[in-house]
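Hi everyone, sorry if this is the wrong subforum. Our group has a chain we'd like a structural model of before ordering constructs, and none of us has done structure prediction before. Sequence below.
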Amino acid sequence: MPDVVDLIRAKRDGGRLADPDIGWLIDAYTRGAVADEQMSALLMAICFRGLDPAELRAWTAAMISSGERLDLGAVSAPTVDKHSTGGVGDKVSLILAPLVASCGAAVPQLSGRGLGHTGGTLDKLESIPGWRADLDNAQIVAVLQATGCVICAAGPGLAPADRRLYALRDVTGTVESIPLIASSIMSKKIAEGTASLVLDVKVGSGAFMPGIEAARDLAQTMVELGNAHGVRTSALLTRMDAPLGRAAGNAVEVEESVATLRGEGPADLVEVTLALAREMLALAGVQADPAAALADGRALARYRDMIAAQGGDPDASLPAAAHSTVVRAAEAGFVRGLDARAVGVAAWRLGAGRARKEDSVSAAAGVICLAKPGERVSAGQPVLELRADDEARFGRALDALEGAVEIGPRPPQPLSPVLERIGPGL
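Answer:
Right subforum, don't worry. Here is the predicted structure as tokens:
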């Protein structure tokens, strides 16, 4: 049995942790045999010193081994999942999972809740009356077999070490470490049992990684981890300087997702979704055209089946906010920029997000982007619509949007929302 203090000193001084020591440490911490203050010290040492690729593989493997693995052997279709590092207006999963399933793959999408200015997939879907996020393993497999896709919460048995470590990192200033971020994400994704995985790593003001170099480093690290653990993995870097689509919130993003599945989605949202769908299908070895499945209604039908299979009513009315107000253009011209982080913070302050994991969220609150970069506006024209259950929330939300809309005499240069791909050849 190693001495924890010796491991802390070794990493503090730039040494390498042996695989058996890492395995013992993660197991002992999960069981409560290593104190929080000791693990906190080690995490801080990792933040400064990092983990080399072999250490990171061992660290991730130990986190996976701390719990169970979801067995998807009963699912006949090839399995492929997608994970996003989070953004503003990022409702892609709601469209993507049924879209890829309608093309012949099975999508086991284990998702999370929002925190801060980034939204959570489960929060969005929980605005649908009756829909359930919490499914046991047998129910996950049953929904996958019935509809080809499931979006739900990860059960407590999957990578329980990550749950303890993440909570500790959140209160000790050790979140911003690429090895720790990568192992946190990938331990859960590998434990869920999918054969293939596509990572959507956001880049820009509204992203967790605003700089492209750090985002590329994180993507490369996660891709290598996934492939090293037998999950065929690739990543797309996508822009998050402006909100994706026009809606940021919960019910408002469900509405926009359904509109997209009907063929009425915003161009940027459709482009990112189709790019990820093509990547997922290629990794899964399925030859199909997701654009055709989106156009002919197959994806929408699969979405409705998935919602119903998880107890939801796809025809039910969604919650509507009691109050609204608008932000107007200060001058005429073209929208040259719309700061994603500012819009996300505004939606959060309106009630759509949470400051702590235990906070509740408003299903109806959010922001509608009435004008996006590249569009012409006149002076006084509404460019943002804010929705809330409580009028008192508008003041701080409007403060967050101060300077968020940039207007100029010429439109900005059009840019693809997809920046680059990282991963093995197809």
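For your construct planning: The chain has a mean pLDDT of 95. Residues 267-284 form the longest helix (18 residues).
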